[in-house]
Amino acid sequence: MNLLAKLFLRKAPAPQKKLPNQPVTKSPQTLEELLTFSNIKSVFEAKGYKFFDTPDRKLNLNLVGVRRDNEGTNTFDDYLLVLYREEELAVKSQYAITTDPGKHWLENPINPKGTAVLVPGQYPGAWKLGKHQGKYNALVQRKPVKVWRDNNKDSVIDYPYAHAQVSEGYFGINIHRSNPYSKSYLVSKWSAGCQVFQAVDEYIGFIDLCKESSAIYGNSFTYTLITEKDLRKHLKD
To answer: If both were cysteines, with which of 37, 71, 158, 203 could 90 make a disulfide (CB 3.0 to 4.6 Å apart)?
Structure first.
């Protein structure tokens, strides 16, 4: 048998079995991708929070803090969102902030009970335009809020479990800026529990927006703090 015949007599390869269509696995969305107007509104509705969605009333602001899932990085890795309607248009402004105290105050608490960490929740009318430490325009606390206390003097925020003690009262938890001249990269002394902006130019725009809103609705602001974990869980369910 010549070589050509031997080649034809070789066993043909077995046909490949067709595999059923496999679902395409999507990469987990980043936190930034999840921060849409509709997603935040949906979380509010699920939690029974008030969400101002008024196409016929301009600058009816929703101020929303979003705390990233970590134990304190001493960086501005959280977000403050301002959501409102301009007629039918959904408007979202997004700012880099910290919702956590900085490393300095975690290691050196001002209060003997520990450094304050704002508890997630909705705080109706709990802030107003005023002066942070009497120095510059900010949203200052005007009603009681809830905080946890971190008192082991390390740089890690020990987020408590459900049974942990919560304090409620006036703690000077303001919404203010960090460096007045440029963007800050480390929180350090800028926050002892306040909600603090990273960039001064973004902060100025935020305060201007609050001033415009207060001229319509009065000097009272509701702030709602949610967590990345709650957001992801809600959207998964």
So the answer is: 37
CA torsion sign for 200, 201, 206, 208 is: positive
pLDDT, tens only, 51-61: 999 999 999 99
Q: At what angle do helices 228-236 and 37-47 cross, to 10 degrees?
A: 90
DSSP string, 140-159: EE-S-EEEEEE-S-SSS---
Whether 54 and 60 have beta carbons less than 8 Å apart is answered as: yes
Place of tokens 């350090």: 188
What's the pTM? 0.87
Residue 154 in domain: yes
Our separate counts of H helices and E strands in the chain read 6, 11
Flag whether 9 is in a domain. Answer: no
- Judged against a pLDDT cut of 90, whether residue 45 lies above it is answered with yes
Number of C-beta neighbours around residue 209 at 10 A: 17
The number of domains in the chain is 1
pLDDT, tens digit, 9 for 90 and up, residues 76-125: 999 999 999 999 999 999 999 999 999 999 999 999 999 999 999 999 99
**Full domain range(s) for residue 182:** 32-236
Please indicate, yes or no, if residue 150 is contained in any of the structural domains.
yes
Asked if the structure places residue 24 within a domain, the reply is no
Q: Burial code of 84-118, b = ≥16 C-beta within 10 A, e = fewer?
A: bbeeeeeeeeebbbbbbbbbbbbeebeeeebbbbb
pLDDT digits (tens, 9 = 90+) for 123-133: 999 999 999 99
